[in-house]
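Recall that a protein's primary structure is simply its ordered list of amino acids. Everything else, from secondary elements to tertiary packing, is in principle encoded there. The following example makes that idea concrete.
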Amino acid sequence: MVKNYSNFLQFLLFFIFLSVLPSKIHAQCAGDDAQKIICDIQNSANQNISLFSLLGGSPTPGGKWTDDNNFRGLDSISGNLNAQLIKEGGVYHYTYTAPDVAGCTDNTATITLTIGAYVGVGSKATACSREGNFNLFTAFDSTVMGPHENGIWRDSSGKILDSPVIGIRYITTQTETRQFTYEVPLIPECPSTPLITTVYVTIVRTPEEGNPQELTLCGTTDLAGYTNYDMFESLLGEDKDGVWKGPDITSRSDHNVNLQDLFNKYGAVELKYTYTVFAVPNQNVCKDRTADVVITLEKRIDFTGAEIVVLNDICESEMATATYSARVTAGPQGIPDGAYRITYNVSGPIAGSETVAVNFRDGVVVFPVKSAYFQSVGKFTITVTSIVPTPGPKKCISLFSPFSYDLNVFPLPRLDNAVITTSPICQNDIATIQISNATLLADGKYRIVYNINGDNSATGQTATITAVGGKASFEIPGNLNAKSGLSVIRITNITNITKPTPQCTNTANVTGNLTINPLPVVANVKIQVNDNCFNGVFTASVSGLGTLTKAKLSYVLLDNNTSVEQIVDLTVLNGNANFVIPSALLPNTGSTVISATYLTNDITGCGSALVNVLDGFLVNAIPLAPIAVNPPDFCKIDRATIANLTPHGPQYKWYNSATLTTPLSDTYLLKSEDLYVTETSAANCTSPASMISIVVKDTPAPTLNPDGQNFCGLKNPTIADLSKATNVPSTVSWYDAQNNGNLLASTTLLIDKATYYGYDLSSVTDCISDSTLEVTVSLTECDPAEYAFFVPDGFSPNGDNVNDTFRIPDIEFLYPDYTLEIFNRYGNVMFKGNANKPNWDGRNSEGGGIGDAIAPNGVYFYIVNFNKGNRKAQQGRLYLNR
């Protein structure tokens, strides 16, 4: 390190001097020595330090690194160092040796690495006292780098520990927490590095389960004082806060058992109990501890139910050479293993008794019995009269009752005078052969040997029969009945195989006939099922049945619908038959295969297997009921039809009955009722119906108040006035025509004798009334007393559109039935008028001698007949001036 400017200048000049020297003359292949100080060794970057990059100069790569201190962490090839594997602070040296290169003056260089002390991050740890020892180095924070290992440990009093491993076996409380400090030596180059850390170890006491003490008692005599036995008597040194489990323990706090009741329930038994003491809660350090206690309840040896079997029964021809052994087995209570003396006697043609020494193993013993007792045909009884344990009785006194076994010397089996009878069978079927009148044959099991002759042939065949009362039967396998026709059955030998009866054998000569019917021909059998809709009728057509008239067909369903084998009866006509597949066998839609598996002639009962007699068909899905949302209520005036409903299309049909009898046309006018819609698929399958409730609302037509059609035209009545004359003045609308009319504004003036059509729009139904109120207005209901009335005294019909006609103002409103006559001075009528013809245009429209000529200027006379209210006619004159 450069200490001051002068030294730095000398160093710089020396560096420049070296730089300009020829490299081939003074090459330093290993580079220059270097050093590095690491005070933060816990930094993860120190897991991979490139020593090569620390070298000065221009080192030649490809060399090898060596650890001068022989510590861990160096990769000698790459020169990468994991400094965190060095577990002590201090100074370390690493040497780089460059590869051999001509002209190198120095092929080694050294890196001096100073690592500051690292004390780690102290943490809290827990340990179970049963472990005995605890290593304090495991109490550091495991998520960061572990501490250097060259430090010293002190306990809470400051005492230096000899080892980081402390003893933790004996503590007096459930948990005990101890404090320790760890201190590492200071590295001067890193004075600010922490040197001391603290760890805490919480020791959890291990629960003590105690030492089990075994207990053995005689269940028959020793349990009077054990009806409330405290299980803690079978443990030593245990914690008392544990839980017992085992027979007769009924709760967590229970530790008393009734051994008398348990013996009464289980008999001789090993009762196993488990005592569990629990670790400190919520510590998850120590495990629960258990102790197993065994209480043995012995039962007195009870020979009741023991049995003896003497081997072997023999045939009468074997009496001279036969040997015998007896097998004694324990009864339900069992016999303990050990040495015993058995005394038995034999009753029969030759009697006697004997005592033998035996050893029971697993409740069984076998010993020989003299053959001299069994030298004639008949039954012999061997009775065990006593069994005594050789070592003497144990805690319980034995119970014993004599028991026996019958041994037989059997005569040879005989089929003299026996008869064979059979029933017709089918080709390849098993034949049952009946044997009767075998009066010399004792009840039991026998093996016979028989031959077959005729349309089928076989020799030396064997079968097992069971004879009862001189009768028996056996079966001939189907492969021996391959040809139809007649077979002759002959029994040639019989052997007694009744267990434990010996196999006594004798010759025989019994014959009988067997008729074998042919199987149906199935080469041309076919089956076909047409597609249909789910829950429809699926009829299977069967053909190729030949000359059969009645048959049974077995079949299965495969693919989307599967079934176990089904059997149907067929009535066959000309080789064909039909049957319906039950709908319960077709619960699924999709492709289904029917496979016929067996055909039986219902007359003979003979059947043949069917191979590849199958057909595929579709069970077409029935569409789901259409989604038909109730539409908004219709108004009757809208004239809504089926075409206004959703869904709509050729695949949908609407009905007005749940019976779905007749579909409705698109033009069917809707009314308030329930409608039903179905959907038909491309496979012509119709869905269930969905119901919607149609509501067609209507509003009553407005009604006219009495005389509501009458108005006075002089008041200029409007549509609004006409509305007021109805029962719904605020909601009625008026049109000038019943169909395709114009809606009239409320300010529209009424026209005399005009007809108006009123509709009501109800705020309740939100519908315009379907029917209308038809009103023909009269504007002549005026009171003459309310209005000034005068007759004009002249007019000027000269075509200037001013006063061109003679007209009495408002007379058609005041006197609607009036008449008017105008005369010339000669008394001729020039004009007759009324409400329908109110205006005189100055022409002679009534003849009067001058025709339709234009009336000249002058004075004319009029007469007005009012025809109302008894008003007298009014006469006057008027002046015509063009």
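The first strand starts at residue 34 and ends at 38. The radius of gyration is 64 Å.
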